[in-house]
Amino acid sequence: MSEASARRKPNDQPALLDTELDHLPPELRWREWMGRVEAVIFSASEPVTRSVLARVVGKNCNLELIIDDIRAELAGRPYELVAVAGGWQHRTKKIFGDAIRAAFGTAAGDGAKELSQSEALVLMCIAYFQPITRGELSSFFGKEISRDLIGVLRAQDLIASGPRSPQPGAPYTYVTTKNFLSQFGLDTLRQLPDFEALEDAGLLSKEKFLAGGIPAGLANGKGEDEVIEDQVS
Predict the structure, then answer these.
(1) What local confidence, expressed as pLDDT, does residue 106 receive?
(2) What's 170's DSSP letter?
């Protein structure tokens, strides 16, 4: 424990952080900001947002350029700085996944239970057509989507309850979470693969969808891009 820490009383507040660093020459100031930003991201267990990083740098600091410089320095390292779930996070590069599995029997990000094909398809449908009810999901797939299946996705924090549907009985809708973005390496829902490309690959069928239940967003005349935009705005 430092002498200053030993003298500090339990209720004392730590000294305010000097974020402007006007006493330093520009190059050293930039290096200090880089170090602070990387330290904050490295110490966090989840993606760190811009508003959090702004607390440790000067008001005229360009965070995008700071991130770019940190990424450049990490170019030859086995981990990288990625934009995910509305923030930034250190992640091991995928090419080292086999080495990590050989060492520990698992790779970073493999802690979650692997989804079945049915669970993955329902999650994909929710991602593209949120907010969507369980009844609409059942209409889309032509069979009832069980509460248990929804429960699996909720237990892994991939989906959450959205706004009540305007349908009779006001059933709950489901939307994806920030953890969904994090698990799939997405910064925002705008990075989801193009719907038409999925149709071309035979993974989703808009015709089949329109023949069944229509989620609230599309029923109100919105296209897929507008529904996604609503979820990220």
Answers:
(1) 60
(2) -
